[in-house]
Write a structure and sequence with these properties.
The protein has 13 helices and no strands. It is mainly alpha-helical. 50% of the residues are buried. Helix content is 86%, strand content 0%.
């Protein structure tokens, strides 16, 4: 069945994407997309478009990512798949977050959160709380952001390990900016093993670690975190305008500032 093969290729593409292997991911996804379209499988098409959107988001091509996520969202609505509608709202929110449009990001993540709560989908509910935390942090609403991050971490520890590690990094950075360095370092140590298997997230985590070390006046430690993040980025062959590339550049600018 072409649709089944198409979805299997989508899953392989998703694994490649998580490993930062974008060209391999794009190749199998294009093949998968042709097959699900040929089979008239709208659900499969929407899923694959979402994975494609995440590739362009990671590469820093926000316009293209927004188009793909919007297309995937339109398909979710067309076929009445509310669950994937929520995921696509979340994906759109992540792109707006990356663009610094925090209000818009929070609005998208709030819509995603409402859907995950209606479905009793604890893993996505946790991710949505954390994403709202990121938007609130960007808006300098620190107290609310801390609450959202703590909720996300608790839900993550109960379900999907990786994202609670990601939000431990976000909360650690927030606490460090408020002078709560002891708590920040505890969180960093707790989250380290959770993000290490995911190269892209690990590199971004190391950048946060570098920022926290810099806030604490540990310039040597910050440079060491930067070096580690750069070595992962080189292995992934990330582009300068990608999410990881931009995060690394921010730390370089802070160290040179």
């Amino acid at each position: 069945a072409p649709a089944g093969v198409g979805l299997a290729l989508g899953n392989i593409g998703s694994v490649y994407r998580e490993q930062g292997l974008f060209s391999q991911a794009t190749e199998v996804l294009n093949e998968g997309l042709d097959l699900v379209r040929e089979a008239g499988d709208k659900r499969g098409e929407g899923a694959l478009l979402g994975i494609f959107g995440n590739i362009y988001r990671a590469k820093g091509d926000h316009e293209r990512a927004l188009r793909l996520f919007q297309e995937a969202l339109d398909i979710s609505r067309l076929i009445g798949n509310v669950h994937t509608e929520g995921i696509n709202f979340g994906n759109l929110g992540c792109v707006y977050q990356a663009q610094g449009e925090y209000e818009r990001a929070k609005d998208m993540h709030s819509q995603a959160l409402a859907i995950s709560q209606n479905y009793g989908d604890a893993a996505n509910e946790g991710i949505n709380h954390g994403n709202i935390g990121d938007a609130l942090f960007g808006m300098k609403r620190f107290e609310e952001a801390e609450k959202s991050f703590r909720l996300a971490i608790k839900m993550g520890d109960d379900s999907s390990v990786m994202f609670s590690g990601v939000f431990r990094g976000s909360l650690a950075l927030l606490l460090a900016t408020q002078g709560r360095l002891g708590e920040a370092h505890i969180l960093l140590n707790e989250g380290k093993d959770q993000v290490t298997p995911y190269a892209e997230e690990h590199a971004k985590y190391l950048v946060k670690k570098g920022q926290i070390r810099l806030i604490g006046g540990d310039i040597k430690g910050a440079r060491s975190s930067l070096k580690h993040a750069q070595s992962i980025a080189e292995e992934l062959k990330v582009q300068d305008e990608s999410e990881v590339g931009l995060a690394i550049q921010r730390l370089v600018d802070l160290l040179n500032g």
